[in-house]
Amino acid sequence: MERVAFIVDATGERIDCLLNPETFEVQRLAGIRTPAAGGDRLVGRGRADDPVRFTGGGRTELVLDMVFDVALVESGPAPQDVRELTGRLWSLAENSAEERGAARPPLVRLVWGKSWNVPGVVSAIAERFDAFNATGAPGRSWLRLKLLRVDEPGDGAARSYDEELARSATAAPAAGRPAAVQAVGGGGGERSGVRIDLLAAEALGSPMRWRELAAHNGVADPLDVTAGSVLAVPPPGSPA
Fold first, then answer.
1. I want to staple 120 with a disulfide (CB 3.0 to 4.6 A). Which of 9, 49, 101, 147 is the partner?
2. Distances from the Cα of 53 to the Cαs of 34, 36, 40, 155, in angstroms?
3. What pTM did the predictor assign?
4. Same domain for 149 and 224?
5. Could you tell me if residue 14 is inside a domain?
6. Domains of the chain: total
7. What is the pLDDT along the chain (240 residues), one digit of tens a residue?
């Protein structure tokens, strides 16, 4: 089972999910709207559909349904209240970051194995509790989280991974490429804070090439890069 995690962009903090999502829904809303009432002239000919106006942009939403249970905690003492496991996810929906003098939710990155690496902000979160103990503390949480994708230009979002990889390989200069890059993190074998996408940016010139760096070093889980380990950099023109 690949681990799912949210990485806070500003601090590198990693929030692991206890289980993979039960369901994962992606929705794209195009940048269109219907004109306001009375904004168009009345015409005699009937229309099959209402007119629309193209505003550009749009939004991409990801909705995850996850389960947290205190009985499934594998390391350390199990908490009595499942909210100790989900509280940090709630904090992602608070206005704890600042941009141009205004408060906003922090930018986070959803990472799930080698298939998903999405930057966004948590726009909504909700929990349903059960398995209460004698003190009333819930032992299980059914959590729904909505992530709104941000900070990705339209051409990059529409481009497939293979095209992005080929574009990055062409754009990244071969001269001066290091033979290896070191994963600098917490030290002492700690894995927190080690970002393979940042290593790819340093070594290959683009964070989008993290899959290539992971494949070249046999890294099965991009969230499981031990701090202090040295990753070999693939030579120019090598297959991913």
1. 147
2. 6, 10, 11, 21
3. 0.58
4. no
5. yes
6. 2
7. 457 888 888 888 888 887 778 788 999 888 888 776 555 555 556 667 777 888 878 889 999 998 889 988 877 788 899 999 899 899 999 888 777 777 888 889 888 877 788 889 999 999 999 999 999 999 999 999 999 998 665 555 555 445 544 554 554 444 455 666 666 554 333 334 467 777 887 788 777 678 888 888 888 777 777 777 788 888 776 654
